[in-house]
């Protein structure tokens, strides 16, 4: 029997997958705007050890690791160097893979880039709006946390008791959210930023929706294992669970 510690249940749970099915692993990958630090690399090394061990135990693994190549940090970095977002992120993406090779980390099954899956992100956001879990404000779209009573189940965050301080560090923006607890799914265009067309006007995706779209595109609507650094449990993974389950009902 194989047991893995489960952040959701806060205990070791028996790990099983249907016989003959690959283990579907989604691993939060790098934001390619600078060198990965030792903490980042520790996480990527853990991902590799886990996948190797599962293969050693006889499982086939389908591990997807995203490349975040559009967010506040990558946009700011490209602007500071006076280059395109693509040129900037491809440079740091190459550095990331050089680091993985130096650590002898075996390649994941797929490394999808966020910028190449904008359509999939828009589809999920549209679904969330249609199901009453998201709303639009002046070209921005937000997830309505009040529509999802299970919010907080991963991190233990209680949104009903003095939670504003916990949420205040998430997105210090000027957008017109109904409450600070709601998080961005789509951001309206700003001058000088890369944009894509959407039903809500030109803009770009929020950070959290990227992982939901990429995991669903390559692994389907459910996963066996989701890995990532501990500092991503809240708000990133918490938001990821909320928007994914709200969109799929699974």
What does this structure look like?
The protein has 250 residues and is α/β, with parallel strands linked by helices. Helix content is 37%, strand content 15%. It contains 7 helices and 9 strands; from the N terminus they run E-E-E-H-E-H-H-H-E-E-H-E-E-H-E-H. The chain has helices spanning 38-56, 72-81, 85-102, 118-130, 164-167, 207-219, 233-248; strands spanning 3-6, 11-14, 23-27, 61-65, 134-137, 140-143, 183-188, 203-205, 225-227. The chain has a 4-stranded antiparallel β-sheet. Helix 2 (72-81) packs across helix 3 (85-102) and helix 4 (118-130) packs across helix 7 (233-248).
Task: Estimate the global geometry from the Cα principal axes.
Answer: globular
The first-to-last residue Cα distance is: 26 Å
Summed over residues and divided by their number, the pLDDT gives a mean of 93
Strand content: 15-25%
Per DSSP E runs of 2 or more residues, the count of β-strands stands at 9
Rg for CA atoms: 18 Å
Unreliable stretches (pLDDT < 50, length at least 5) are none
Helix/strand-derived category reads alpha/beta
